[in-house]
Each structure stands twice: as C-alpha cells, then as structure tokens.
Design goal:
The protein is an alpha+beta fold. The chain folds into 2 domains: 1-89, Alpha-Beta Plaits (2-Layer Sandwich); 91-212, Homeodomain-like (Arc Repressor Mutant, subunit A, Orthogonal Bundle). It has helices spanning 4-26, 37-49, 70-82, 91-108, 118-126, 130-141, 145-163, 168-174, 180-191, 195-211, and strands spanning 28-32, 54-58, 61-64, 86-87. The chain has a 4-stranded antiparallel β-sheet with strand order 2-3-1-4, sandwiched between helices. The longest helix has 23 residues, at 4-26. The N and C termini lie far apart (85 Å).
Length: 212
C-alpha cells in the first residue's frame, strides 16, 4: 500500500514535471510561413535587432533563452508580418504548423533514403500519437496528412522538373516514390497532366512570355 508521504512525493514530482514542460513551451516561439533558410535569416535579424536572446532556430520555431516582454513580442509580431511571417498563439494551430514543417523537412531532406514510414516519422518527431495528430490536422485543414504530403511532393516534382537537372527516374528516387510509374500516376491525378506534358506546357508558356 502506498503511504501518504509517497503519494505527496509522487504528486510533487508530477507538478514539477508539468511546470518544467510549461516553461519549455513558453520559451518557444512558433512562426507561420517560416519555410526556408531565408525566412530563418529574417527571423534571426529581427531577434538580434530587438536584442531578444535566442538559441536554436528551426523551420517554424525559435528557442528563447529567456522570457520576452509583451512590448518585445508585439514589436516582433509587427515586424515579422511585414516580412510575410506570423506568430502563432493558438495551441492547436501551433501543432498544425509543427506537423506541416515536419512534413516539409521530411520531403526536402528525404533523398530516397527513408528509415521509417511517414506516420512513424511524424509521430516520433513530434512525440504525439499519430492518430491524434491526423485527427487534429483533418479537423483544421480539411484534408488528411497523407493528402497534404502528396500535394507537397507534387510541388517538389514540379520544381525539379523545371530545374531540368534531374530526369524522372532520379526525381522519383529523390522524393521516395516506389517507381516512375507511381510518380507519374500521382502527378497526373493531382495536376491532370503527365510530368512530360506539364514540363512542355511550362516551357512553352515561358517562351511566350519572353516573346511578349
């Protein structure tokens, strides 16, 4: 039987753990539309200008080294808005943004070498049950996580096609498609065109614009 002393000690430890986790949450900023190295540099410049001590800057998040004042936060929010970035306040939206940034990182840095499936990767990265994340994402965004992944992978295919540095086989490997046929089928379903036709259409459109 657990003694009253042990119960109090257990509850005390739980309260300390909760306070620690809350402090860690409060010591982070979550930023919407922060999806590139350029965005990270803009955020870094604003933090330095406002003399806000910070640590690690990731896509979508900034680790603070100390709490910031309301006036600092308000000024940072206004300055970030002018750069097309937005500070998150709603906890559910913060989680959605973290899911989106995790997916973007996963697609950008996959390079054809997956170590686990998407659901396991996202769940492990964010330390939440995948079903919970999937339900919140669908509720807020109106599409599933899988659909969001597909749409972003297709955008990646479009970019790589237009860069014209990789062939379709290399693109399918880089973006972790099982085959060129799988990539082409998914691309056609989303855009209504095959990759080759899409690339030719873009090329002709650019030529027309140059002539005009």
């Amino acid at each position: 039987m657990i003694s009253l002393y042990q119960q109090r000690r257990y509850l005390g430890n739980k309260i300390e753990e909760l306070n620690y986790r809350l402090n860690k949450i409060n010591m982070k900023l979550y930023i919407k539309y922060m999806v590139s190295l350029r965005c990270k540099m803009l955020v870094k410049e604003e933090l330095e200008r406002l003399e806000i001590p910070f640590g690690c800057i990731e896509l979508g998040t900034v680790e603070l080294l100390e709490e910031i004042s309301i006036s600092q936060r308000n000024e940072l929010e206004i300055n970030l808005l002018s750069c097309g970035l937005r500070l998150h306040k709603d906890k559910k939206m913060i989680l959605i943004e973290k899911i989106k940034n995790t997916i973007l990182e996963m697609i950008q840095y996959d390079d054809g070498c997956p170590t686990m499936n998407y659901s396991e990767y996202i769940s492990e990265k964010l330390n939440y049950d995948y079903t919970y994340l999937a339900n919140i994402f669908s509720e807020v965004k109106g599409i599933t996580i899988q659909q969001y992944i597909i749409l972003n992978k297709i955008e990646g295919v479009k970019e790589l096609l237009l860069f014209d540095e990789l062939n379709l086989t290399e693109i399918s490997y880089k973006l972790n498609y099982s085959s060129v046929a799988h990539l082409s089928g998914q691309f056609n379903k989303v855009t209504g065109y095959s990759p080759s036709i899409y690339k030719e259409m873009k090329r002709k459109r650019e030529e027309t614009l140059e002539i005009a």
